[in-house]
Design a protein that fits this description.
The chain is 54% helix and 2% strand. By secondary structure, it is mostly helical.
């Protein structure tokens, strides 16, 4: 049975959460941690059992932190609660610190220096692997944010597909050939793409509104309840989100 859901751009009461988004449910948080832990076990276990790499203990700790952050971050940034926090319209006076940074995908991506760190502290990679991965991920996010809304998800999927093909062909540090596609998934697809935040309908809402099926109202925070134009001469539908024209619009 499908749980009734609706698009809900309104922020619930409570403290903002930079990791999950405001109002994340317990099952959403569990999924984030399950992803991070599973990926960490796979990567670290692979290095221990198959590569024969003689890492120091501190390198295993650094690797575990990086894997958990990036793999878990794919799911965390893709949560509907996080999408709502990142893309719901708000005044500048309501944004502070980390919250303001998370609402600027290009700036948020620029702070992810993970590949540079990996290239410096783990053996086996080429000299330019770390900077190359960093630039590739940043370029993917900029491309997504330069697209009009209807092309953001396809552009992000293009970047994910391309980097998944390219990653095995690069000379990555041992155990880190997955880093490029995972970073593009986390930052270009999960974070940078504006998507409607679906939230479960509570029993009280179901009773009050008298519906039993999922409802799908306007899918953009900029949409209004005004009826669509009925001019028969119009041949091009209005776009639901304008294409950014200035650098300040894509950050």
């Amino acid at each position: 049975m499908t749980t009734p859901s609706r698009v809900d751009w309104s922020l619930p009461a409570g403290r903002p959460n930079a990791l999950y988004g405001t109002g994340a449910r317990a099952e959403e948080k569990v999924l984030v941690h399950l992803t991070g832990i599973s990926a960490t076990v796979v990567v670290v276990g692979h290095v221990v059992l198959t590569t024969g790499t003689s890492w120091m203990l501190w390198q295993y700790v650094v690797a575990a932190v990086l894997v958990f952050d990036l793999a878990g971050g794919v799911v965390a940034n893709g949560l509907n609660s996080a999408k709502r926090d990142h893309h719901a319209p708000r005044g500048q006076e309501d944004e502070h610190g980390v919250d303001r940074m998370l609402r600027k995908p290009v700036l948020f991506t620029a702070l992810h220096i993970h590949p540079v760190v990996v290239g410096m502290v783990f053996p086996g990679g080429s000299r330019w692997w770390g900077p190359g991965v960093y630039v590739a991920v940043l370029a993917a996010v900029i491309l997504v944010r330069c697209c009009p809304l209807y092309l953001q998800r396809p552009m992000a999927l293009f970047a994910c597909s391309l980097t998944a093909v390219i990653a095995p062909l690069t000379t990555a540090p041992e155990g880190f050939s997955w880093l490029l596609p995972i970073m593009v998934l986390k930052l270009a697809l999960a974070h940078a793409v504006q998507e409607e935040p679906y939230r479960p309908v509570t029993a009280a809402q179901r009773h009050r509104c008298g519906f039993t099926k999922s409802i799908r109202p306007s899918t953009s925070p900029a949409d209004t309840s005004a009826p669509a134009p009925t001019d028969a001469s119009a041949t091009e539908p209005a776009e639901d989100s304008p294409q950014p024209a200035l650098w300040k619009d894509i950050r």
